[in-house]
Specification:
Keywords: Methyltransferase, Transferase. This protein is of the alpha/beta class. The protein contains nine helices and seven strands; from the N terminus they run ααβαβαββαβααβααβ. The structure holds S-adenosylmethionine.
């Protein structure tokens, strides 16, 4: 079972692949699409869940998503068909950093995909290239809520604390106009859901050759979360505008 297959099963009950609940996603999308007829772009869209929710909220909105995962994009397409929004959604299978478009976008999203650009500020630089004047960026990124162990840094990568994260964004020429720090409940729900779904799949498919590996992976990832980073890692989603264009 490869990483993509594990991720697909792990997100069975948490279609947003980031630690935010449905109400937080709705509120952030509402803030990022004040008119309702925006053209929006998601860099690292996964199964397109942020885009699909924005399309459902606003019948005149148009959306585009970029991701390298064929399986995730196929899933986005199927859901869009089912929800009757397919004609307003365009999907691109390619490296997000290489995406080019004739359009400028009123909202550029990138949630949990900063590694595709080499970090938070490079992600903002990429988003800026696609941003219409006066537009919003919605970006979700991890931060250290407390000093992490070396093991946690090795596992999740280099992050700053929340204040430093926001200061770096401001120093880069952006003003936060809203934001959301995932609650302990949202962070916990995400991890329980991912590793619980993978465990459930393994228990329901005992004869599958991947069953034992799936169960072991879920146990390892759950234990890594509980032991190495549950008490130190956080996730912030910011809505940004250029401070001056
Ligand atoms: C944690 S998931 C987040 C998905 C989505 N933004 C969400 O919140 O539901 C990260 C996504 O980034 C995508 N990704 C990773 N590297 C990428 C790259 N170089 N170009 C485009 N997408 C990439 C992955 O395929 C995955 O779908």
């Amino acid at each position: 079972m490869n990483r993509e297959e594990i991720s697909k099963i792990a997100h069975t009950h948490h279609s947003i692949k980031s630690p935010l609940d449905d109400e937080s996603v709705r509120r952030l999308l509402e803030r990022g699409t004040p008119r309702g007829d925006e053209r929006i772009l998601d860099l690292g869209c996964g199964g397109g869940e942020w885009l699909l929710r924005a399309l459902a909220m606003h019948p005149r909105l148009r959306a585009e998503g970029v991701d390298i995962s064929e399986g995730d994009l196929a899933q986005a397409e199927r859901t869009a068909d089912r929800q009757g929004v397919r004609e307003r959604l365009v999907l691109h299978r390619q490296e997000a950093a290489a995406f080019a478009s004739p359009y400028a976008y009123d909202l550029v999203l990138s949630v949990g995909a900063a590694h595709a650009f080499g970090g938070l500020l490079p992600t903002l630089a990429a988003a800026r290239k696609h941003l219409a004047p006066g537009g919003h960026v919605l970006i979700g990124e991890g931060f250290w809520d407390r000093d992490p162990s070396g093991e946690a840094v090795e596992m999740l990568g280099e992050f700053a604390d929340l204040a430093t994260t926001v200061e770096r964004v401001e120093a880069d020429g952006w003003t936060p106009v809203d934001g959301h720090v995932s609650s302990r409940g949202e962070l916990d729900d995400y991890e329980w859901s991912c590793w619980g779904s993978l465990s459930t799949w393994a228990l329901d498919h005992p004869a599958d050759p991947d069953s034992a590996q799936a169960l072991a992976t879920a146990a390892t990832r759950r234990s890594e979360w509980l032991r190495a980073y549950r008490d130190t890692w956080g996730f912030v989603t910011l809505i940004l505008r250029r401070t001056s264009d």
